[in-house]
User: What shape does this take?
Amino acid sequence: MLACTGVMLGSVLVTVRYTCMMQHVSPSDGRFFAGNSLWLSLLKLPASLISMDVITFCHKVWPWLFVCVMVIEYFFLGLCLFSGDGMSRMYSYSLACIFVSLFMIILHVGYFSESSLEAMVYLSSWQETAVVGILLFPLLVIVLLWKKSLAFKVPFLLMISSLYMGISGMEKWKSLILKGASVDFFEKGWLLILAVTGVTTLILMKKRAARLIVIAVLLSTITLTPYPMGILAAYSVSGLIAQIYIKSTREGTKKAYLTGCLLTAVSYSVLAVTVLAAGLFSGSRVSWNVGFYQPENDIRIPKDLMAVTDYIMENAEGEPEICGSDVAASAVIQYGISQGRYFKNVRGLWHEGPMEITKIKKKINNIDDKSYVIIRNSNSEADSCIESGDIYLIKEFGEYGLYGR
Assistant: This one.
């Protein structure tokens, strides 16, 4: 129990470090803060109570609330998942710790895209999809696992379903109907394989919790919410560890229990290392997380991009066309909103980072004349574009250069 507790707390601290202390601007934040969703309106209420704008609140306060609720909720979910195995409280507690720690490891290595639920915990925990998929999904499973009458559970199920639809579902369906937006229920890769294979195996082993998790997934389908693959995969792996422990301790002797503990530790270590290796050698972005540094202000937007935005607000006539990387575009929109101005014509044409000359020349053709172009750490490439007449330098702001088209 002590060992499992220590591992869980260590994995939680890693998540706290990135989610709460090193939270940076996400490419999807600009679209979120520029919207008028019901959930964004609700977030503005606590922000106003503490005299803070919603962007600062979401970057500085909300991640702490999110992680605290998530850890408590997932630990309780782990207790509910494994208490039905008919083993001791020590068993349920230890497996709950293992379940939580595995989920935290998956968060760290399961970043396949900014739209995945696993990435949103680190990048944008305040968005509707993250709140519903990460916080409401386990709550739904907990209610389904209650050994209470259906009449008692129905009000809670209706409440959670209403929150699912109210926070995220209505916005997703509106976007689908009006804009024809596509819906990605899950991300491809090793996480999908692990989740589907593991849950299917547990269903075949007649595990009630696995069947109820599948029922909860159906609500995600109805509300167009991505499936929480991290939860499914963490339960799959911890469920396998649980079966190894149960099988090795059937004799009930002290030796059998010691053997079970040893096998549990070895199984956890092997599977945890396997998950980490899968993240390192697949398309996930664990190396990107390692490169985080302490943010320089409360709203987590680089000062250089704030200076660029200030310059554009002071000098642009009318509604300017602004292009740059996905991060730069998001930061400009966010900072503009925090200053009382919403830039409508902002496009992110490439991923953040130094651009190769061939890529930037290709992207430059998608930029209209009389546009502002923001480029980071690309002086030599930008100089080449200047020589060819594609863009001209307006002013440099530290790491970022502002160019005209």
User: Anything to note?
Assistant: The mean pLDDT is 84. The first helix runs from residue 2 to 21. The CA atoms of residues 126 and 196 lie 27 Å apart. The chain has 18 helices and five strands.
